[in-house]
Structures are given as C-alpha cells and as structure tokens.
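Quick one:
INPUT:
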C-alpha cells in the first residue's frame, strides 16, 4: 500500500509563496513511520482526541485544547493517535518571518521561538482566542493586496502577544526584558539549530549573542540547571541518534559529515563522550 504524503509536504510551494497557511481538520501528524524535521514553524491546537509523539526524543501526549510549538530543525516523531484525533496546524515559513521582521521593526516573534516547554494546555477562553487568531491570519494571507504583509505583521504581533500572555499565565516564560534568562535561552537554542554543524563550542554561541563566554555560561547554568555545553551536545546527540536509528542507508561516515564533524573518528569520540557508547554500538541496539 502506497503511503500518502502529508499535507505539509504536498503544499511546500504554497507555504513558500504565501508565507503561512492554516491546515484545519488534521487527523494524522507527519509522519508515523519515521521522524519529521519540519523546515517551518508549526503551531498545533488539538480539538479532540489524543496524540502521542516524541519531540526531540522526549515523549509528549497531546489532549484536547493542548497547544504545541515545533520550531524549524526540531524532530517530531508521531507514534500513535486516537481514532477521533483532530487538530489545526498553523504553518509559518521562517523566511517569511525574517521578511516581516525586516520590514517592520516593531515585529518580534519571541514566543514562537524554541521553548523548553513546547506544549501547554489552553483554557476555553485561550483556546478560542488562539483559534480565532489563526483563522484571521489565514484569511489575510490569501489577500492579493499591497497591504497584505503589513496586515499580517500586525495580526501576528497580536497573536504572538496573546501567546506570550498565555505562556506567562502558565508560568512558562517571562514577559520582562528581551535579555531575561528565558529569552536568552530561547535565542541560544535557536542558534544551536542554525549553527550546530559549524561549531559545537560554547564560545562560538556566546560570541553570536554578543556576551562573554563566562557570563553566558553562568546565566545558562543558573537559569536552567544545565550547562551551555550540555545544551549543545543534547541537540547534536538527538540529531545523531535519529539518523542512526531511522536512516540505516547512511553509514557512519555520511552521518558524521552530515552533522558537521570533520571525520568519523571525531564523531565517534563526541558521540561516545556524550551518549556513553559508540555510534555503531547504538545502532546495533536499535
């Protein structure tokens, strides 16, 4: 039986052209047989039923009125769902976000960036508010009008502000200054996704964020209980394990180069130091 492509794969050109799209009546998540690394910002709202998935190798279970955010470059592995599962997905192109941010200096997307807590439950009022905002965004995105992008930026500003308020009410993020520990962590984790192949050193990311390595490392450690180097290795090892487990057609050398290592020996040393066994040993256990 030929497996049907998921809507996110079937509509790549439309998403790129419009910048964002709303998918209603989603009753399956991409892709049950293997992990899915989305090139988009994907925000889902569950209407009914449940879905179990691994998000960056961490098990999550989504129930009615749960909201989940999956940023670009992070791994979603949908495992199973109930027969009555139904959700809406708002899919946003990161390039479109950059365009809006460039054209409107007031536009920010902090709440849409990577959050350590990627899922949370919406109250009835929050659920209606977010869903209504999704649908307004979708209507504006279909306009053929010179003010379309400005209208989208304004509406997305409203939506991200709503989400920020909801996250704050849940105790998940601070609504204070941009350089708060939570916002610094978000910026750091997004930088890892973009640059982990180029460098796995703390100093590299401290320089990107215009901070001294010592101060940067202290803030990350004190605010999260995890060192900056461990956050980096955590993401790299997640990517490595996913490739080793689900891409058996790739050999160790190919995986090492895909992850930005200079050679298989360097990859093996790094993997063993952070995972406790070699890549070959890990693959043999799967």
């Amino acid at each position: 039986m030929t497996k049907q492509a998921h809507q996110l794969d079937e509509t790549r050109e439309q998403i790129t052209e419009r910048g964002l799209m709303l998918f209603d009546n989603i009753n399956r998540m991409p892709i049950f047989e293997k992990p899915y690394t989305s090139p988009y910002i994907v925000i889902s709202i569950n209407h009914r039923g449940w879905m179990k998935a691994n998000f960056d190798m961490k098990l999550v279970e989504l129930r009615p009125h749960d909201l989940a955010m999956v940023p670009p470059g992070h791994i979603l592995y949908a495992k199973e769902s109930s027969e009555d599962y139904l959700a809406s997905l708002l899919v946003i192109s990161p390039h479109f976000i950059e365009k809006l941010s460039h054209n409107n200096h007031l536009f920010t997307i902090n709440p849409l960036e990577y959050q350590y807590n990627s899922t949370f439950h919406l109250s009835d009022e929050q659920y209606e508010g977010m869903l209504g905002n999704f649908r307004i965004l979708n209507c504006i995105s279909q306009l053929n009008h010179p003010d379309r992008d400005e209208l989208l930026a304004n509406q997305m500003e409203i939506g991200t502000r709503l989400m920020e308020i909801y996250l704050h009410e849940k105790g998940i993020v601070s609504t204070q200054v941009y350089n708060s520990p939570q916002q610094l962590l978000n910026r750091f984790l997004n930088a890892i996704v973009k640059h982990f192949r180029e460098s796995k050193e703390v100093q590299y990311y401290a320089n990107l964020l215009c901070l001294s390595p010592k101060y940067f490392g202290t803030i990350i450690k004190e605010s999260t209980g995890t060192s900056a180097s461990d956050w980096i290795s955590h993401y790299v090892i997640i990517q490595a394990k996913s490739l080793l487990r689900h891409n058996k057609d790739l050999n160790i050398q190919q995986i090492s180069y895909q992850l930005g290592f200079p050679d298989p020996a360097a990859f093996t040393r790094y993997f063993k130091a952070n995972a406790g066994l070699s890549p070959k040993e890990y693959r043999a256990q799967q």
